Amino acid sequence: MSSPARRHKHYIAAQQSASLDEAASLSHLGNYDLLLFKMHQDLARLSGVESHETKAELKRGMLPTYMPWVAGVLQSNAGRQDAILMRVLVWILDIGELEYALDIGEYAIRHDLVAPDGFDRSTSCLLAEEIAAAAQRDLSAGRPLNTAQLQRAQQLLANQDMPDRVKARLFKFVGYALRQDGDAVLALDMLKKALLKDENSGVKTDIKQLEKVIQAGS
Fold first, then answer.
1. In angstroms, what CA-CA distances link 63 with 13, 55, 59, 70, 84?
2. Cβ contacts of residue 191 below 8 Å, gap of 6+?
3. Domain 142-218 CATH (choose: 2.60.40, 2.60.300, 3.40.50, 1.25.40)
4. What sign does the CA torsion over 103, 81, 70, 118 have?
């Protein structure tokens, strides 16, 4: 049985995340359950918003509530399925904090944690698709690609099962990042891997151009 001090702490936390009536009914719950209750409230709020931009801003404001929990989970390395952690992973990806998403993703993959309810993709597929999508946005906006981040993702996901087209897309953007950095040989290798995974990955012209660059420099 929890101590009076602990029950009081939970009661105060519940007051901050719900109405007074709800707080009274939740005063017996542990920290995880209280955070999960708060997350359900936040998800309900998000479900009423159609704008992706507005949703991202709301998530950015909601996330600090959950970050101490996430930090504790990663530090403990317990490896239990955690609905809060995995929902935070999705939100972190949505707001573009990819380095921290990879920290969470590395933990989730190491312990075989599954994506939140409502997602039919594996955790590794979710990471690969969202990181590739972020790279595409950077490319379209004329922003430099984050080579180290893309390589970290590719190495983390190299042995994970996912559709070939998804893995090809990640290879493609790693190749583009290396080409951007002037590493034509490694870039060519990544683009060839993308083509092997998916004939329609859109890298055939890039491969020919890189082969010419390498040949001219030899």
1. 16, 12, 6, 10, 11
2. 171, 172, 175, 203, 206, 207, 210
3. 1.25.40
4. positive
Mean pLDDT for 108-131 is 94
Highest mean pLDDT: which range of 13-22, 24-33, 94-103: 94-103
Give counts: helices (H), strands (E), the chain. Answer: 12, 0
Token pair of 114 as six digits: 């599954």
Distance CA 137, CA 35 (A): 32
Q: Which amino acid is at 26?
A: L
Of 44, 101, 111, 41, nearest to 81 (Cα)?
Answer: 111
The label of the residue with tokens 């105060």 reads 12
